[in-house]
Amino acid sequence: MVNKEVNITRLDAFSYREAIKDGEAIVLIPVGALEQHGPHMPLYTDAMLSTKMAELTAENIDALVGPTIWTGYKSQQRSGGGNHIIGSFGFDASHVIETCRTLVREFHRHGVKKIGFINGHYENYQFLYEGVDLAMRDIAHSGETTPTILLLSYWDFVTDETIAELYPDGFPGWDVEHGGVMETSIMLEYYPDLVHMDKVMDLPAAELPPFDAFPVDPSRTPESGCLSSAAGSTAEKGRLLTKSVVDGMSQALREQLSVQ
Amino acid sequence: MVNKEVNITRLDAFSYREAIKDGEAIVLIPVGALEQHGPHMPLYTDAMLSTKMAELTAENIDALVGPTIWTGYKSQQRSGGGNHIIGSFGFDASHVIETCRTLVREFHRHGVKKIGFINGHYENYQFLYEGVDLAMRDIAHSGETTPTILLLSYWDFVTDETIAELYPDGFPGWDVEHGGVMETSIMLEYYPDLVHMDKVMDLPAAELPPFDAFPVDPSRTPESGCLSSAAGSTAEKGRLLTKSVVDGMSQALREQLSVQ
Amino acid sequence: MVNKEVNITRLDAFSYREAIKDGEAIVLIPVGALEQHGPHMPLYTDAMLSTKMAELTAENIDALVGPTIWTGYKSQQRSGGGNHIIGSFGFDASHVIETCRTLVREFHRHGVKKIGFINGHYENYQFLYEGVDLAMRDIAHSGETTPTILLLSYWDFVTDETIAELYPDGFPGWDVEHGGVMETSIMLEYYPDLVHMDKVMDLPAAELPPFDAFPVDPSRTPESGCLSSAAGSTAEKGRLLTKSVVDGMSQALREQLSVQ
Amino acid sequence: MVNKEVNITRLDAFSYREAIKDGEAIVLIPVGALEQHGPHMPLYTDAMLSTKMAELTAENIDALVGPTIWTGYKSQQRSGGGNHIIGSFGFDASHVIETCRTLVREFHRHGVKKIGFINGHYENYQFLYEGVDLAMRDIAHSGETTPTILLLSYWDFVTDETIAELYPDGFPGWDVEHGGVMETSIMLEYYPDLVHMDKVMDLPAAELPPFDAFPVDPSRTPESGCLSSAAGSTAEKGRLLTKSVVDGMSQALREQLSVQ
Amino acid sequence: MVNKEVNITRLDAFSYREAIKDGEAIVLIPVGALEQHGPHMPLYTDAMLSTKMAELTAENIDALVGPTIWTGYKSQQRSGGGNHIIGSFGFDASHVIETCRTLVREFHRHGVKKIGFINGHYENYQFLYEGVDLAMRDIAHSGETTPTILLLSYWDFVTDETIAELYPDGFPGWDVEHGGVMETSIMLEYYPDLVHMDKVMDLPAAELPPFDAFPVDPSRTPESGCLSSAAGSTAEKGRLLTKSVVDGMSQALREQLSVQ
Amino acid sequence: MVNKEVNITRLDAFSYREAIKDGEAIVLIPVGALEQHGPHMPLYTDAMLSTKMAELTAENIDALVGPTIWTGYKSQQRSGGGNHIIGSFGFDASHVIETCRTLVREFHRHGVKKIGFINGHYENYQFLYEGVDLAMRDIAHSGETTPTILLLSYWDFVTDETIAELYPDGFPGWDVEHGGVMETSIMLEYYPDLVHMDKVMDLPAAELPPFDAFPVDPSRTPESGCLSSAAGSTAEKGRLLTKSVVDGMSQALREQLSVQ
């Protein structure tokens, strides 16, 4: 299957219908946000990364990629710096929930029975969960057969081996990854024109307490808006991380969605 | 203004903040849909066209372009073939309203005072109107100064002269344009790889009654899903249409948003 | 059928049940607004006109008329002068949608299978559409048979011949009709006591741009609140307009709702 | 005050603005329902009665009458027979709440500072209360001065003397009045053409337990749909009841709304 | 059945499942509020009383008691003093409705077919009614068999004989009971440590008009926050009241829910 | 501070007002759920634990404890076994959000300026976050000063030292704690009568994948409903855990809420 278009936004309707007609098609839906990612990466970073991870995985398992949800939940200080920062666009929980719920409803109406949400914005997860849960309830109540849906955040598929290799001095945890080495490295591999390594602010990782405080104290977020430094990011690391993610997601999706 | 990035999704947060800091920045927000556009154009057509019109206009008047809303309202038979067609993804009114409302709220929080919504999906208009209206009410109630917002559909700026030139045998009306000569011609000019003129189904324009009937009678929509034929579309026509649209929108935005 | 009461608000429940018991009854639901209509017509104009058009059509095709929805969407400047004007009462989209949705649900529960919404307030249309769409989805999900529903705005049935006859100097378009010759003439025919031709402000038609601007610039609406002048309105014109509308609506409803 | 129009639905916008311009105007908003009222009275009974009570009171205290809300809450078995009965149209709580909330918001925007809701459908009361409460909160949060609002059900103003006179054998309580002597008598006085005393079903009053059971047991509602018999209703009784109501409401409104 | 735990909050899941597995189990759900009850009783009074009444009745009819809803509707001046008082926590109608709707949905999912809501906060009733009504509609639409549900306020089961015995000087009505003799006496019987008779403010009962006025006039509520005096309350009266309530509720529940 | 009542549900309104009148009072609001916790612990476990942690902390820092929210979000398989299990009661996201939002609004209305939510049900966190965020936005928009609010889950305050001491063979992670050693040990310390160690099912910890799958595969949850075994739980461990939690929370609350 050379050069086949996997992203349905670029497919025409006739080709899309052909691709899903047997009821076995898998659709992966990337979910990101529009959120500040420091001085060195674009606002669309989470959307770009989740889309890229979805597309690479789709090529692997012969799936389609659905439209990218960029209307993500509000940035939270402990995982994204906080939604008080100019440059982050936060949608309310109800909106994220309904976006997800609608997409499940529409793909289900089209006859798609296997869906994967590929999350790239930490804050989205619980709201996507609720969106899928409500959609499943809607469909069950209507008496129809519910589709099979997987919900995941792509970084949860980075293996321990990859982490050990990339973070020889110890892994700080995904919670302070925002704008850090992982995201920046993958961006360098796939969207090098949009990454400005010269602008990276090499600041210490944020030290955030085990609670959220309102109103947010802006001083707790580093001036860069990133929770850890992107210094040391390379395209090579991006390749390694991507391979780990795509391999892991491909395997999980194959197993869960019964790909022959 | 050479090569300046106008689309904020590709800007980093620091550049975005710099660009909007004086309160005079204009942000144009494209609004489309994910909707079947016949066998010859991609599902993302409305999103692509509104984004392109916004970006060209933005270059013209030194504006920024916001994220593209693709979660549009349900396709209606008399303007888009109908949402029963597989390949169209319809969002409920409440969702379209809230997307728009949230973006106004967030840009307002950032300090942006001049916003234009550039609609490219007929069915969206009234729901965008409601979204803006509610956002303005929210802001007014909070005691802050409301921004200035323009809401338009780009085809309303095609001049009568351009119409006369492009449709010498008489203009069938924008209502049957869905997937027709205008959209296809502009796509040919800007996204030729995504248009398949060889797949165009050259069928008579739909003859639709002056009302909506539920449940929809699918036989009223031509088999192509397009309401008029795209035959005769050319990139040249796309250029003419675009020029008319961009000139008109630029002038309106300049006047309404007091661009110096 | 002499003097038969067609409006169910004036029927007792036993007669209503008798009238709908065979499942073939058609119910027409008028939809208007409470909105300023200049110095010469009452706030209830849209409600009165849609109700009258519905009642005359109902007598023609042996239908019933449901309750009149007057809780219409907010007046928009380009079709109704704008909701900033004191004397217009605007309901949010969600409310108009739910009113319509509830009525479909309740008539469906009663066993009514043929419903027509007769709209008389331009701004309502898309929200009524959504209301019907959601109600149809609700009913379909519950496993029951959906009713057949028509949604129309009455002026869309004025024939080209009637327009040519009544507007010999050229038709300005329905978009500037608000408070103009059509509405005033029909009111003169049916509610002459409520029309004050001596108060008509004979101002030029509004010249409105092809977009909406927020906040609304009140100076774009003529001082009368009407978008075109009612001067020249006569009951005779009202009769002609009504005949055109009622004939057209009757034919459409007969065909669509399979009236024997 | 001879022949002055009190109902704003029949006023033109200029007269309406004149009438409310000094900020002292009182607007009374009738609230009813569309609900079965037995074989002898129309579905619109509650709307007609609340409107009539409001109009008579308005003439008394020089007030205006707003539009009649007929989209009332679902009929409950213990006060209206139950919403399972064909002929009753029940709106959800959220809808009744929002209707009320919107009207307060719009009258407030117009500058009206004194509002009375005149309820004529038992089931509405708590939802109207919530609607007013939310509107007051909205207005307070926006930093504006809240209007003064009265919420009442008209029968609560029938005096003990009138009750003693009209029910010499003992008053059964307002809870079983639905379609009974009070409503029928007032209808006979004001809308005699719409009351069919020959159709009255003279059944014993319903004996309803002190709880609600779901699903409703239809056999608990008398076959007439009325909770007590309308036999014995007369226009004379209607006059007495009306006088008691209008006197009481006028006094309360005068005192509460500081009418000079 | 000695010492059997009836309250499911204290049951483990395995015992709960055992208790409801045959589909005949009755679950009583107490509903209260968090509301000021004068200087002599705790904020949780309504929750405690409804829970106690439910537990005693459950022991009587071999039922279970569900979790206590304390998130009640806003205190109203004519039945609870008003929600302006510090110490009352008022939830919006939509919230009370959804709490009730969710519990019905969840118990239904568990297989419970017989539910009784035992209300102890006057203001809740209509919102609980709506919650049950919507839940029944949800379940019916999903094609499943609706449960049988009873909704009651416990004081409606105090017999006339008990009232005559406890109020020899005449019964002031339940409307002014808030914080009065009934509630205080039952609290004295079951939660004596939480009642401070020495703090009772022996003030005349509130004289409240037959309407609600907004904004609330705080001076209409006695300084105690109670609508009638608790002076004269005794545990003995509490026992009598409780017996009357529990006997009446037990009988009603047995009959309605077909307890063998 | 001997025997002072800290839980406001047991306080009378006058004492409550006294306690909060200076604007320095801290209120801690426990948040739990009604959820299966295996065969050995009650459904109310999360509510009981969060309440106990809040009360002990309150005594420490001289705070009050607010009402316990038990209407928690749906149990998720990876943290609570899943909401498909009979015995778990799941509330939708919108409900959890609104509960939290309302409590902030009401405490704010009362003049309370320092609030801590003490979460005891993993799944709640993001929805509580949204609830607080919306409440803060509401208050900010109304022009009033926002309170200071802390949101935390109590187990996040167990120190590494305590973990090392209690889990000498390695800590399995809080994600599989549901019904495990931590919860069971604290319950043993404070509610020994409600824990049945003899019923503990000593099963291996659940091995859950790094994603959620819908519909849930029930076989992934151990038969006990607990994600790890409670064997080895002791009251002594409960004391150690509690001390760690209460010390940590007390310190954080003191620092964040500026307790003198």
UniProtKB/TrEMBL annotation, chains A, B, C, D, E, F:
TM spans (from-to): none
EC nos: 3.5.2.10
Keywords, alphabetical: Hydrolase, Metal-binding, Zinc
Obligatory cofactor(s): Zn(2+)
Domain of life, per lineage: Bacteria
GO biological processes: creatine biosynthetic process; creatinine catabolic process; riboflavin biosynthetic process
Similarity comment text for this entry: Belongs to the creatininase superfamily.
Protein name, as recorded: Creatininase
Native source organism of the sequence: Flaviflexus ciconiae
Lineage of origin: Bacteria, Bacillati, Actinomycetota, Actinomycetes, Actinomycetales
